[in-house]
Amino acid sequence: MIGSLRGIVILRNDPYIFLEVGGVGYKVLVSGSVLASTKQGEKLALFTYTHVREDALDLYGFPSAEDLELFERLIGVSGVGPKTAMNVFSLNKRDNIIEAIVNADVDFFTSVPRLGRKNAQKIIIELKQKFGSSQELDLSEKDKKQHADVVRALESLGFSPGEAREAIVAVKDKGGTTQELVRLALQYLGKR
């Protein structure tokens, strides 16, 4: 599996870019925003998802690991394939997608080509608890890492990701260190 690529864009051919890495050209399907912001001849680094089928091997490229993670969660929903998930990214930014999931905005997803109402509802139902509150969208990178550490700690203690994120949102302004946040989150969860 190819996890990331860093090289020179040698060709742009919507919806693909051809990325030359070490003398080998890779055809990578990217979102419309990545394609629009990329110029032929410039350096580019992408996190990739490798999709293997009986008759093809496709690469999907993303500018950040967070985008790749959301893409993988989307295709984990029954009925949503990689091309449909990429259509979601072509029309929207990651934070907007997460916000639509958290707010259960079915119309947001039904505006995407090849994505019907039933699958839009599945996306929301299956992914809503994984993203917790939309308040988490405005965190700094340091806070995101700290909150991810707290979620992992709470999950290792048997709490669901949804419960862990709910607790973080409730206590995030009360603690400083990761250990303090875990302690406060446990107190919060114990009172429910």
General description of the model:
The chain folds into 3 domains: 4-62, Beta Barrel (OB fold (Dihydrolipoamide Acetyltransferase, E2P)); 65-131, 5' to 3' exonuclease, C-terminal subdomain (DNA polymerase, domain 1); 134-191, no CATH class. The chain has a 5-stranded mixed beta barrel. The chain has helices at residues 32-36, 65-75, 82-91, 94-102, 106-110, 117-131, 141-156, 161-171, 178-191, and strands at residues 4-13, 16-21, 24-29, 43-52, 57-62. Helix 2 (65-75) crosses helix 3. It is of the alpha+beta class and 192 residues long. The longest helix is centred in the last third of the chain and has 16 residues, at 141-156.
Give keywords.
DNA polymerase, domain 1, 9 helices, alpha+beta, 192 residues, single chain, OB fold (Dihydrolipoamide Acetyltransferase, E2P), 20% strand, 5 strands
Layout of helices and strands:
Blueprint: E1 4-13, E2 16-21, E3 24-29, H1 32-36, E4 43-52, E5 57-62, H2 65-75, H3 82-91, H4 94-102, H5 106-110, H6 117-131, H7 141-156, H8 161-171, H9 178-191
Parallel strand pairs: 3-5
Antiparallel strand pairs: 1-2, 1-4, 2-3, 4-5
Helix pairs in contact: 2-3, 4-6, 6-8, 7-8, 7-9, 8-9
Strand arrangement, largest sheet? 1-2-3-5-4
What series of H and E elements makes up the topology? EEEHEEHHHHHHHH
Cα end-to-end separation: 43 Å
Average predicted local confidence, pLDDT? 86
Q: Could you please say which CATH topology of the largest domain applies here? A: DNA polymerase, domain 1
Give the overall silhouette. globular
Number of strands: 5
Structural domain tally: 3
Q: Architecture of the largest domain, CATH level 2?
A: Orthogonal Bundle
Largest pleated sheet: 5 strands, mixed, barrel
Tell me the Rg in angstroms: 19 Å
CATH class of the largest domain: Mainly Alpha
CATH homology superfamily of the largest domain: 5' to 3' exonuclease, C-terminal subdomain
* Structural class determined from secondary elements: alpha+beta
What is the helix fraction of residues, given as a range? 40-55%
Low-pLDDT segments: 133-138
What fraction of the residues are assigned to beta strands by DSSP?
Answer: 15-25%
Discrete helix count: 9
